[in-house]
Design goal:
The protein is α/β, with parallel strands linked by helices. It folds into 3 domains: 5-22 and 225-308, Helicase, Ruva Protein, domain 3, CATH 1.10.8; 40-220, P-loop containing nucleotide triphosphate hydrolases (Rossmann fold, 3-Layer(aba) Sandwich), CATH 3.40.50.300; 312-416, Winged helix-like DNA-binding domain superfamily/Winged helix DNA-binding domain (Arc Repressor Mutant, subunit A), CATH 1.10.10. It has 16 helices and 8 strands. The chain has helices at residues 5-17, 40-50, 72-90, 108-118, 136-148, 161-167, 169-185, 208-214, 226-240, 249-261, 266-282, 290-310, 314-328, 336-349, 357-369, 395-402; strands at residues 62-66, 96-101, 153-159, 190-197, 217-221, 334-335, 373-379, 385-391. The chain has a 5-stranded parallel sheet with strand order 2-3-4-1-5, with helices on both faces. It has a 3-stranded antiparallel sheet with strand order 6-8-7. α6 (161-167) crosses α7, α10 (249-261) packs across α11 (266-282) and α12 crosses α16 (395-402). The longest helix has 21 residues, at 290-310. It starts with a helix and ends in a 15-residue tail after the last helix. The mean pLDDT is 87. The structure holds a DNA duplex (22 and 22 nucleotides).
DNA sequence: CCTCCACCGGAACGTGAGGAGT
DNA sequence: ACTCCTCACGTTCCGGTGGAGG
């Protein structure tokens, strides 16, 4: 059987496509290059703080601040890698280490569990630690016993530590207080914490008792400027792409410039560059052009919005739709009361429960945080205080996506404005 | 300067699902 | 079968508030 020529050509394109990438992973956020440009200062600071661990002395706790994609995580990992390999070389005290992302690991229990697992701690009977069901106290005891079983320095990196406190200010403070105070209860070992925060104001949320121990040392990660981004990209381009793929100097400049607009986020820059390469690859081309960069930018934007809207729970969809409907009726500014009324209609039409205004208010805030709408609290004097709401994404965008939901097909044109 | 609207947003609590141990 | 845990999602209650209009 002869191969269909079309498919044949398609596959050929993929084989040719290898001409684009040499090592695609070099453009991923998890990749740790052997040199981190523009972060010497931060690396030296953290290095000198952690240094005492090599002599078995407990390092101070560190808080790292900086917006997303400023290299906090990669620097922390890099320095710890170096520390551990140095310790192994010289047979000094090899510190234990753990890296926990507090945004994906959402509860105190699971954070403790993750810390336990990083050093293979088991239940007293030798079984694995269960996902849930244990009192949090108990798992803390297990952690401490394991730590104390032999003298060690334990460096725990708590990534995105701000989300821990923002999710639940009491719970967050509790676990941080518990961790920072552990040193007073441990006999042999010492624990030291590297907190990584995207939010510069995160300190305000911390209990002063927590802050005083956790924030012993602070390291700031400023955003990269366009020139630095270009430098980073240049370094990765050499690792990731085959020679001659990027002939146009403008490609890197453009990626750097686009990412610099997004508060100097290197992760975004690398993502954009990778998507650009993949786009060119899919088209079966051997070179990457500025046109590809622009396409990739659009593609990524559309992709993230589509994804967030699609995965919204039904109630949030109803709220978003009510904003959409009012916008469609020609209203630019929408106030909470109006939004709530529209929501009641739409939720009824969707035949889902209607929530209270209090709850809808929270959903509005969530949509705001997702960047789908913009809200500001405004005072209209005699006519009360409320939130001014505006749609932050294009109307077309919302409609096409929301229409996919089966419950929404019933909604009348009239209802949607 | 004071009032008072229409909501904001914190606190406490309820419910039901999901999992573990006994 | 029963107890004990956490967690997501909502509700009820309520004190707080910026500024237009009196």
């Amino acid at each position: 059987m002869a191969k269909p020529p079309k498919l044949d050509k398609l596959f050929d394109k993929f084989i040719e496509g290898q001409a684009i990438f040499k090592e695609r992973n070099a453009l991923r956020a998890t990749f740790i290059p052997n040199y981190l440009p523009f972060r010497e200062e931060q690396m030296n600071r953290i290095g000198s703080i952690l240094g005492p661990a090599l002599r078995g002395a407990p390092p101070s706790n560190i808080l790292c601040y900086g917006k997303t994609g400023t290299g906090k995580t990669v620097v922390a990992k890099y320095v710890l890698d170096m520390l551990v390999s140095k310790a192994k070389q010289s047979e000094a005290n090899v510190p234990l280490r753990a890296h926990v992302n507090c945004r994906t690991i959402t509860t105190n229990y699971r954070i403790l569990k993750a810390l336990c697992e990083s050093m293979n701690a088991k239940m007293p009977d030798g079984s694995a630690i269960p996902f849930t069901g244990l009192p949090t106290d108990e798992i803390r005891t297990i952690l401490m016993q394991k730590l104390d079983s032999e003298p060690k320095i334990f460096v725990a990196v708590l990534d995105e530590i701000d989300s821990l406190v923002k999710r639940d200010i009491n719970q967050g403070n509790d676990i941080l207080y518990g961790l920072t105070r552990m040193n007073g209860e441990l006999e042999n070992s010492r624990i030291s914490i590297i907190g990584i925060s995207n939010d510069l104001k995160f300190k305000d949320l911390l209990d002063p008792r927590v802050l005083s121990t956790l924030g012993e040392e602070e390291v700031i990660f400023p955003p990269y400027d366009a020139v630095q981004l270009r430098g980073i990209l240049q370094q990765r381009v050499e690792l990731a792409f085959n020679e001659g793929v990027i002939q146009d100097e403008g490609v890197i400049n453009l990626v750097g410039a686009l990412a610099a607009q997004e508060h100097g986020d290197a992760r975004r820059a690398l993502d954009l560059l990778r998507t650009t390469g993949e786009l060119a690859e899919r088209k079966g081309e051997n070179h990457v052009t500025q046109e590809h960069v622009r396409d990739a930018q659009k593609f990524m934007e559309r992709d993230t919005i589509t994804e967030t809207v699609k995965t919204l729970p039904a109630q949030s969809k109803a709220v978003l739709l009510s904003v959409y409907a009012l916008t469609n009726r020609g209203q630019k500014d929408i106030f909470t009361g109006e939004c709530f009324n529209a929501y009641m209609e739409i939720a009824t039409a969707m035949s889902i429960d209607t929530l209270t205004q209090r709850r809808v208010g929270d959903l509005i805030s969530e949509l705001d945080m997702l960047g789908l709408i913009n809200t500001t609290v405004v005072s209209k004097g005699r006519y009360g205080r409320t939130k001014r709401i505006r749609l932050a994404v294009s109307k077309k965008h919302v409609r096409t996506i929301l229409e996919v939901d089966a419950r929404l097909s019933k909604l009348s044109k009239e209802l949607l404005g």
